[in-house]
Amino acid sequence: MNKTTRDKLIDAMIDALQRKGLHGVGLSELLADAGAPKGSLYHHFPGGKSELAVAAIERVGQRAEQAFAALFEHQPEPLDALAAWLH
């Protein structure tokens, strides 16, 4: 699957937030990690770094929601689901 530039920027921000936090990473580093030109950041995220960070946090939330939905599909009992998740 080919990722869009927008997805690459979001993935780069997710990684940066986990490693360095919001204030620990600069735009140049994000753009280099995403392999994206500077103009693409403001094209996809007119609000800049803050808007990109919000999109990254939302993406992580969506992934967590999907993971828990799949978990509860296989383990409908909450304690069993928690034990399976911790395992």
Q: How far apart, in Å, are the first and last alpha carbons?
A: 30 Å
The secondary structure category is mainly alpha
User: Could you give the order of the helices and strands?
Assistant: HHHHH
What's the total number of strands? 0
Any idea what the radius of gyration is? 16 Å
Instruction: Return the domain count.
Output: 1
Report the top-level CATH class: Mainly Alpha
* Beta fraction: under 5%
CATH fold-type name = Tetracycline Repressor, domain 2
Give the proportion of residues in helices. Answer: over 70%
What's the architecture in CATH terms?
Orthogonal Bundle
Protein architecture, described:
With 87 residues, this protein is mainly α. The protein has a single domain, classed as Tetracycline Repressor, domain 2 (Orthogonal Bundle). The protein contains 5 helices and no strands. The protein has helices spanning 5-19, 27-34, 38-44, 49-74, 78-86. Helix 1 crosses helix 4. It is elongated. It starts with a helix and ends with a helix. The model has no long low-confidence stretch (mean pLDDT 93).
Main attributes?
mainly alpha, Tetracycline Repressor, domain 2, 87 residues
In short:
The protein has 87 residues and is mainly α. It has helices at residues 5-19, 27-34, 38-44, 49-74, 78-86. It has five helices and no strands.
Architecture blueprint of SSEs:
Layout: H1 5-19, H2 27-34, H3 38-44, H4 49-74, H5 78-86
